[in-house]
Amino acid sequence: MKKTVITLTSALLVGFSTNAQKVEFEEYDLNNGMHVILHQDNTAPVVTTSVMYHVGAKDEQPDRTGMAHFFEHLLFEGTKNIKKGEWFKIVSSNGGTNNANTTDDRTYYYEVFPSNNLELGLWMESERLLHPIIKQEGVNTQNEVVKEEKRLRVDNQPYSRFLENVKKHMFKKHPYKGTTIGKMEHLDAATLDEFLAFNKKFYVPNNATLVVAGDINIEETKKLIDAYFGSIPRGNDIKRNFPKEAPITKEFTAKAYDPNIQIPAIVEAYRTPSMKTRDARVLDMISTYLSSGKSSVLYKKLVDNKKMALQAGAFNLSQEDYGTYILYALPLGKTSLTDLVKEIDVEIAKLQNELISEKDFQKLQNQFENNFVNSNSSVEGIANSLARFNVLYGDTNLINTEIEIYRSITREEIREVAKKYLNKNQRLIMEYLPESKK
């Protein structure tokens, strides 16, 4: 009887969570192709205005890497009506915050203001789209900024080239083989005309999703959006035809070197399907099972119990076109990298041949339920999710329904997906070594 009561209670809590966390939104297109998503939440006098452009590092020319990330910086330089150096002053003096970020697949800009400054946020984002000032002076300034960012975050950080080296071996044709920050010599060689052409191609309303979320009136917000964005000319349609990767059918090895580390790492990497697939969600659950927290399988085994590793983990890097599933470990003492691979492989084999326990499965479900609740706990987070699901998945309502996909995944599916993707003949084994061993 006790087990029945607990199960019933859990079911009621799940049902309550689903209803409590449902995100209401309205979406539509402007005549110029800009997609608009509105979410009204009047519980606090705060509003987020954000624009996600469907352009990332994968959209760059092979000899002009880093361009998408560079624009994340360049488009804060100023506009026809916002003087150079004034962007952040305007935001802060009006009680707001703002930022931007770039991935391989998209670029995201946002402001968070007191809700009485909604119009200001819309005006600023329309200025960024319609009237950016792209001149050689600004290019030169941001070139130095990006170089300093690379020095701080990549060149002088331990293990910072870890993912870069995995990607360049996993992808031979697709532009995912590059890095978001790109190569500085490519940016140095780019002409002003190339920067202008990049802006003209990708920073157009029909390649953008505008999200306004928070303390708003829907009808008044629509009028403001039409006033600030409706007259912006539509750009040319963007055609994408990225090369496909041949399947990996044989295990291959590589070595990479990092001058900023003293302890090596071992990496197992597998190419996996797009983030939009059900299998990608199953792989999310597998990585959480293996390495989320100190009670996870790899940490308990390699770090706590056997004292073979300083760190061990797994993560599913899901992207729009492909994913990369990565397992890694840092050896402790005299443990060899080969021994770490053997121990990790034992756990993968268990996943492929056995069902995880009901207790571990329920723990997984609870973790994903908690992630779902947390991701929708702030207006800023909701705005980001609405934009991301629309731009990268083509389904804005996944903000409400993706959790149902995770809830429907079974222990049997976890076993079958592990069998499908995590095989020795489908992977890279990479030794990530201190530079001195080269």
Automatic annotation (TrEMBL):
It comes from Tenacibaculum caenipelagi. Residues 36-181 form the Peptidase M16 N-terminal domain. PANTHER family: NARDILYSIN (PTHR43690), PROTEIN YHJJ (PTHR43690:SF17). SUPFAM superfamilies: LuxS/MPP-like metallohydrolase. Pfam families: Peptidase_M16, Peptidase_M16_C. Residues 1-22 form the signal peptide. InterPro entries: Metalloenz_LuxS/M16, Pept_M16_N, Peptidase_M16, Peptidase_M16_C. This is Putative Zn-dependent peptidase. The keyword Plastid does not apply. Belongs to the peptidase M16 family. One of its GO terms (biological process) is proteolysis. Residues 190-367 form the Peptidase M16 C-terminal domain. Keywords: Hydrolase, Metalloprotease, Protease, Signal, Zinc. GO terms for molecular function: metal ion binding; metallopeptidase activity.
